[in-house]
From TrEMBL:
Residues 151-216 form the HTH luxR-type domain. Gene3D superfamilies: 3.40.50.2300. This is Response regulator transcription factor. InterPro entries: CheY-like_superfamily (IPR011006), NreC/VraR/RcsB-like_REC (IPR058245), Sig_transdc_resp-reg_C-effctor (IPR016032), Sig_transdc_resp-reg_receiver (IPR001789), Tscrpt_reg_LuxR_C (IPR000792), WalR-like (IPR039420). It holds the Pfam family Response_reg. The keyword DNA-binding applies. The modification 4-aspartylphosphate is found at residue 55. Keywords: DNA-binding, Phosphoprotein, Transcription, Transcription regulation. The lineage of its organism: Bacteria, Bacillati, Actinomycetota, Actinomycetes, Kitasatosporales. It comes from Streptomyces roseoverticillatus. The keyword Endoplasmic reticulum does not apply. Residues 4-122 form the Response regulatory domain. PANTHER family: TRANSCRIPTIONAL REGULATORY PROTEIN NARL-RELATED, TWO-COMPONENT RESPONSE REGULATOR.
Length: 223
């Protein structure tokens, strides 16, 4: 079955461009459009999309609040949210990730990256491009822990190897890349990632990456 996509952006021209790109793919189907967050909530309830391509800055209700309601505990459906941001990186993207978005993508990303990102998010993974992640977190370095604060107690529930995996997830590495870095199998990495998410009460890799930075385990600019 095709992946059902809802386009949410207050610029009709952008929605048209995204629709043309996505409808050229056999496994993707654009089921609707919305020009603001309130419309997006109505469309999610009515159309039950698999992925919502969500702009951030919109009238009436912005993408952060819409994401929070779509992915929150009272959610009505399976929709995952993929946030769109400008080249300069929107100041609300971190809030959107905290609100439950499964990743973010630049608005001027190549068509093949947009298509792949939707497939990744629809498959239950997080779209966490390393280069964008580093730029985003470096931009907000002043608002994140300096590394001098004590680490939260929850981190002590992780094994040393799980901490290693969490650090690599925060750098935006895929399971395959983590496996190569640690000289283990991808299956082992998936198991470690699952344990990290369960122990820390996190939903996905995006929340894990944000947690790693906010807790001070990883610092912006660090390798």
């Amino acid at each position: 079955m095709a992946i059902r996509v809802l386009l949410v952006d207050d610029q009709p021209l952008l929605r048209t461009g995204f629709r043309m790109i996505l409808e050229a793919e056999q496994d993707l189907a654009v089921v609707g459009e919305a020009g603001d967050g309130l419309q997006a909530l109505d469309q999610v309830r009515a159309l039950q999309p698999d992925v919502v391509l969500m702009d951030i800055r919109m009238p009436r209700m912005d993408g952060v609040e819409a994401t929070r309601q779509i992915t929150g505990p009272d959610r009505n459906g399976p929709a995952k949210v993929l946030v769109l941001t400008t080249f300069d990186l929107d100041e609300y993207v971190v809030e959107a990730l905290r609100a439950g978005a499964s990743g973010f993508l630049l608005k001027d990303a190549p068509a093949d990256e947009l298509v792949q990102a939707i497939r990744v998010v629809a498959g239950g993974e997080a779209m966490l491009a390393p280069s964008i992640t580093r730029r985003l977190l470096d931009k907000y370095a002043g608002h994140l822990p300096s590394g001098e604060e004590p680490l939260p107690d929850t981190l002590h529930t992780l094994t040393d190897r799980e901490v290693e995996v969490l650090k690599l997830v925060a750098r935006g590495l895929s399971n395959a890349e983590i496996a190569a870095d640690l000289f283990v199998s991808e299956t082992t990495v998936k198991t470690h990632v699952g344990h990290v998410l369960t122990k820390l009460g996190l939903r996905d890799r995006v929340q894990a990456a944000v947690y790693a930075y906010e807790s001070g385990l990883v610092r912006p600019g660090a390798q």
